[in-house]
Amino acid sequence: MSQRSFAVSVGLVAVIFVIGVLALGTGAIPVAPLDVVRTLLGNGSRITNFAVLDLRLPRVLIALAVGAALGMSGAVFQSLSRNALGSPDIIGFNYGAATGGLLVILVFGGSAFSVSVGALVGGVVTAVLVYVLAWQRGVRGLRLVLTGIGVSAILQAVNFYLIVNAGVADVTRATVWLTGSLNNLGWPQLWPPVVALFVLVPALLFGARWLEMLEMGDETARALGVPVEGSRVYLLVVGTAACAVATAAAGPIAFVALVAPQVAKRLTRSAGAGLLPAAWAGALLVLAADFAAQRFAGNLPVGVATGALGGVYLGWLLWRRR
Amino acid sequence: MSVTAPVSVAGRRAFGLVCGLVALVLVALLSIAVGSRSIPLSVVLDVLFARDGSDSAFVVWELRIPRTLIGIAVGASLGVAGALMQALTRNPLADPGLLGVNAGASTAAALAISVFGLTDLRVFVWCAFGGAALAGVVLYAIAGRGGASPVRLALAGAAVSAALTGVTQAVILLDQQALDQMRFWTVGSLERAGWTTVVEVLPFLAVGLLIAFAMGRPLNALSLGDEAGKALGAHLGRTRLLTLVAITLLAGAATAAVGPLVFVGLAVPHMVRTFTGPDERWVVLYCAVLAPVLLLLADVLGRVMAREEIDVGVVTALLGAPVFLWLVRRGRA
Q1: Are A239 and A76 in contact (CB under 8 A)?
Q2: Where are the transmembrane segments (chain A) (predicted)?
Q3: Chain B, window 171-190: residues with a beta carbon less than 8 angstroms from a chain A beta carbon
Q4: CB burial class (10 A; 0-12, 13-18, 19+) of residue A147?
């Protein structure tokens, strides 16, 4: 990691801490920033312990975990496809995860845990499907992306079909989940993504050394001794798993996987994948978007806020790159 | 030989078009006959020519015929819009659904319903035009000047539709009361189309189709490249503007009528070109006839495939996506 990447990471963590403290202190029971810090260090009163630790901390931590997972997943996919738009939400893996989750909610009426499992399975199955369909004596990044767009169109249609034909009560639950929401999440929902990240982060960082060489082109990578197809499959699997874990925890939160790596890239001014800066940027985006959506938009799901931000960013990106 | 050859080509094209029209009539009859209450074809023909006041006559005239007409109109519109987009952007993957134009129309319609409480089709069809035009201009800004590769355009389209779909979703969440009404626009369905829809949307579609037919010749000229097109007497700016207007009218009105449909405009122009060759006038004409055949078939399939009716938007996506994937695999992108 370059000096600049390190500095950017430290800066992002500092901003995350500030917004995190604000988020922990805001709500029906307001807590002053200093008291929040005091409470986090274990010196809180009964009321601040309840508000900060029991009520708000799990939500903030889930936001960070989900954002980091999405940021890294996006960095992997954008690097593999060599395209800023090749993020998992554009190429359909989170539509697949959504299909899995929706099937559980609407058809099997499952618990929150089984919704997560459904999302995970849906995301991975979609990734395998896209990869098989795009295979033609190897897989090139752009064909992978276009295949993903085609498959995601099918999945979106399936998702809409499931929603249209469900009862109104289920539809509301499904629509909120489908938008990406951290509402009503607590400590029990925190552990699955955190445990998954403990496995996935090392796995992703292990694959990152190939990522930079793959970016130079298959021929160059091969000459440098990279097992091209094998490493690509490996990165696709762990990248998809990261995206699916995030989707399983909070529903498909739009655009974070697309935006976070780009933000990180601009801040670090590096050409490479920069997984860790992307993770911090993703965490910051989800945390800030959730805080803004709660505070200023009447407790809207965080996916609405990231969707709006992402739309603006996307317009700018497209305008600049034409 | 060299004198008769063009005549026989024109004859072959005309014969093909007649075959297409026959197919359209047959599928339309099928669409009128098949449904949750199937009506024998002989009865359909009887009540078509003599409304006898029976239940069958009611179903045929009040439900099936408007639905079929809207299917034909929307199919023709989206097929022609797809052909125009492919010609304008010189991009084989262009489709008003895939590139987000339909999503733009439905987002604007959803906003009109939720924010301004407009439910009158005559009013919010204009909002749909606005949304379609905006999405079209954004896409064209990216694709214009022949600069965007098919891949970039397809990506940009996917991204724009993702953003717009997100906005629609947000509107639905914010406005629980309008949720039920707007579920209609998130998927695309002919189910609710009635005579009022037909009457109110048809003029826009007709104007759009007329402009499209008129654009055939200049688009042919431009297909040789901007410079050669100019040399052949085509006005670059005027042709592009009018083509965009036609796409907006067609995709916007079609979406206002039935919701956003993906892939209808993608496959048909490709199939058509293998038969007609690259002449845009014939491509547009054929698309206007054959795209409705596909859309009506998709609608009929959706009615018989499952116990609960499957919306046509789902069926077209299921049928169209494999074509898209095939085009990608063949390296046309």
Answers
A1: yes
A2: 7-32, 60-80, 92-109, 115-135, 142-164, 190-212, 233-259, 271-293, 300-319
A3: 172-174, 176, 179-180, 183, 186-187, 189
A4: buried
> CB of B313 within 8 Å of any CB in chain A?
yes
Q: Would you tell me which residues 65-104 of chain B have a C-beta closer than 8 angstroms to some C-beta of chain A?
A: 93, 98
Distance CA A149, CA A199 (A): 29
Do the chains contact at B167 and A145, CB–CB below 8 Å? Answer: no
B329/A143 Cβ within 8 A? yes
Q: Can you give the pLDDT at residue A141?
A: 66
Closest CB to A165: pick one of B152, B159, B308. Answer: B308
Which among A309, A275, A303, A316 has a CA at the least distance from the CA of A177?
A: A303
* Tokens standing for residue A134: 């795009």
Q: How confident is the model at residue B6 (pLDDT cuts 50, 70, 90)?
A: low
Q: Is the pLDDT of residue B93 over 90?
A: no
DSSP-assigned letter for residue B309 = P
Domain ranges of chain B: 19-321
* DSSP one-letter code for B144: G
The answer to whether residues B248 and B131 touch, using CB atoms and an 8 Å cutoff, is no
**Predicted local confidence at residue B73, as pLDDT:** 93
| Element counts in chain A: helices (H) and strands (E) | 14, 0
Contacts of B49 (CB under 8 A, 6+ apart): none
Higher pLDDT, B82 or B114: B82
Q: How far apart are the C-alpha atoms of A75 and A201, rounded to whole Å?
A: 13
Using CA atoms, how far residue B203 sits from B76, B262, B270, in Å, is 14, 23, 27
Instruction: Give the single-character DSSP code of B146.
Output: G
* ipTM computed for the complex: 0.73
CB contact under 8 A, B165 and A156: yes
Give this prediction's pTM. 0.79
Share of chain B above pLDDT 70, in %: 89
Residue A288's Cβ-side half-sphere holds a number of Cα atoms within 13 Å equal to 16
Q: Is B151 on the interface with A (CB under 8 A)?
A: yes
B19-321 in CATH: which number?
Answer: 1.10.3470.10
pLDDT in tens, A167-187: 777 777 777 777 788 887 888
**Residue B313 in 3-state DSSP?**
helix
Q: What tokens appear for A86 in the block? A: 């090749």
Cα–Cα distances in angstroms (integers) from residue A169 to residues A95, A174, A298, B17, in the given order:
22, 9, 21, 49
Chain A residues close to B317, C-beta within 8 Å:
153-154, 156-157
A vs B, Cβ pairs < 8 A, gives: 146
> Contact, A127 vs A96, CB < 8 A?
yes
pLDDT in tens, B192-205: 777 888 888 889 99
Cross-chain Cβ contact B311/A300 below 8 Å? no
Residue A13: predicted pLDDT: 93
- Contact call for A304 and B170, based on CB within 8 A: yes
Ranges of each domain in chain A: 3-321
Assess contact for B320 and B262: CB atoms under 8 A: yes
**Interface membership of B274 toward A (CB under 8 Å):** no
The fold of the A3-321 domain, in CATH, is ABC transporter involved in vitamin B12 uptake, BtuC (1.10.3470)
